[in-house]
Amino acid sequence: MNDPLNIAREVIVQEIAGLEALKVSLGADFEAAIDLLSAVNGRIIVTGMGKSGHVARKIAATFSSTGAPAIFVHPAEASHGDLGMISKDDVILALSKSGETAELGDILAYAARFSIPITAITADAGSALAKSANVALILPDADEACGQTFAPTTSTTMMLALGDALAVAQLRQRGFTAGDFQGFHPGGKLGAALRRASDLMHGEDRLPLCGPNASVTDVIDAISKGGFGCVGIVDDTGLLQGIITDGDIRRHVSNAIENKTAAEIMTKNPRTAEANTLAGDILGFMSETKITALFVIKDNKPIGIVHVHDCLSVGVI
């Protein structure tokens, strides 16, 4: 029973059981909590002590990154001046397994004094925290994964999952999009994947374009000068009719290609992107179809082009 792998699996099984119980326990109180958090004009003040405090910090960060302004307030520091960080327009999300954390007392009293609404996450429906809250989310009865010491394990996992559930439910209710999310995550691989085509594309001055009656010689010249491995075929009004890649040229070499026009060898109705298409989607399509460049269009007219190297160079994966 002292095998580390078996112990690890037992811990995970125990915590999964807690999450399953949490899923079943969700009901009207969760919906009420979403309504309370969504109605706030100020910020979501997330607080908790000890392990609950660590979870609270992460929940606050998740809310903020998904467009719901939130901060963590340490309950002990609140008693020494940080209560001033909490305004009448805020809402409090307080975490405590027992619901009797002494350090939360001043925050609860402050909230009552100024009619600041409270959502509680606790395991005891009869606790001081639950009774002080406008909405109490009660964690189901579940054994801690560390049975010998009863250290917060399963309970904090449930708190963390419940915080994620609140944040995701709220953002979907607000219609928060991946594009909105990118605004809060400009850095790293996530930020890169959430950039838009307009952030990466080369503009109209770099577009490799030919008319449908262009000769193959002109097409090859445009591909070579453009440096993107392709050329867009546009009609007299500037509408994109097709695309020719250097691979298309090679495939037509044995078919009297010198006597053909661009319209005869082009791929019609090529896949394109809009200016707001996410970079991650662009790279995913390129990988799937094994192409290296994609025209960006507006009203079916090319306004830019994105090469696979443009995605990779900013960290899109």
From TrEMBL:
Superkingdom per UniProt: Bacteria
Domain (SIS) ranges: 33-176
Record's keyword terms, sorted: CBS domain, Isomerase, Repeat
Annotated signal sequence range: none
PROSITE patterns, per database record: CBS, SIS
InterPro entries membership: CBS_dom, CBS_dom_sf, GutQ/KpsF_isomerases, KdsD/KpsF-type, SIS_dom, SIS_dom_sf, SIS_Kpsf
Family: Belongs to the SIS family. GutQ/KpsF subfamily.
CDD domains linked to this entry: CBS_pair_SIS_assoc, SIS_Kpsf
KW Metal-binding (keyword) present: no
Species of provenance: Hyphococcus lacteus
Protein name in UniProt: KpsF/GutQ family sugar-phosphate isomerase
Keyword tRNA-binding listed: no
